[in-house]
Amino acid sequence: MAFRIASTDNGCRCPDFVADVLLGIARERGIRRPRYAFEKGSSQGDGFIGVVTRVVIVDEDTGAEIRLICKHLKRNPNDTDTFTNMDMFEREIFMYRHVLPEIVRFQREKGVRDDEGFFAFPTCHYAGYCEETEEAALIFDDLKYEGFDMLEKRKVPSVAHVKMLFTQLGRLHAVSLALRREKPQILAQFQHLDDFLTKFMRKSDMESLQGKNCRLLQTVLMPEEEDARKFFQRWETEMWADVAERIEGKNAEPYAVINHGDCWINNLMFCHANGANNPSKITLIDWQMSRYASPVLDVVYFIFTCTDKSFRDQHFSACLDTYYNALAELLEKLGGDASEQFPRAVFEEHLKKFGKMGMAMCTFTTPLDTCYVEQYNAEPEHTYRANNREAYEARMRGNVTDFIDFGCMN
């Protein structure tokens, strides 16, 4: 190893095994005498797996700067669970080393331009694991300094932001459908991407949480909604078992595709040119929950966790059109035909069949997003903020109403 990475005064650092990677990036960009500085890159509640560190590399001679993000995680030897944080971290490494490059390669072979296809993810300089220290790391450009930022996670995004996301989701899923027909051997390499989310949610501590959240949800139901009450009473103990069965890729064939898998507001970054309200670019980050499953899972996950009934009443139909049209347009450029490979009628059917995924996730996110519950803990029941009850009730009431009206509860 050429050098070690010293910790800065604030205690932030990167693992030593990526030192040569950082030096290589500096050399590639013309920095000959690099000085390194590190700062914390995430806050509590952001939902990141591992530690996120901002890296600044400054040329001692010229003052030129490079700004990077390093995500890293050290394996916990005391973690004996069959499913761990390192499993998720290694999934993201696999996505950046194998899946996303193949998605780009296939589109380039077909002559797809940047503005026509799916390229909405960060440039990854390194994705790997050190056997000696049992540490993993990913290194990206720091998009904050390219004009990208996250939206406020407790606010419903604008229709322009949602349509931009749905355009990219449609394109992402179109690539899988095209690969299925033209290069099935490539897609077959990624069909082992089973669902991590339900494995995570079915841990013992999370299973107790599903009971608390489903009991809380029942407080917004009307007395006459007996069928819904029975449904969510059953979900107190069976929610993730029910959802897991529907998420499996084999249950979505022959339409299963590569999903982002954790498609909510904190895993999106937008660029707003010249301070405009509407976004000019989007990038999808945090691919550790990626899966092979129905295309609609990314859609229902976002629509139930990040929008409210007012948004859906006004824009849901148009957003679905945006998604499907983007999928069909790119699939045609890639030599396919959406009317055969993912007909609109099948898309509508999947929204009903797999919509339970979105409802399950919003039982988990809505108490936090409305600040009705400050944080989840091991207590038998939640501690509530009474003054935020109205916000929780309005948001969850709308979710339940649409869940039923969309035909997803059956």
UniProtKB/TrEMBL annotation:
* Pfam families the record matches: EcKL
Where the record annotates domain CHK kinase-like, the positions are: 138-333
Domain of life from the UniProt record: Eukaryota
What is this protein called in UniProt?
Answer: CHK kinase-like domain-containing protein
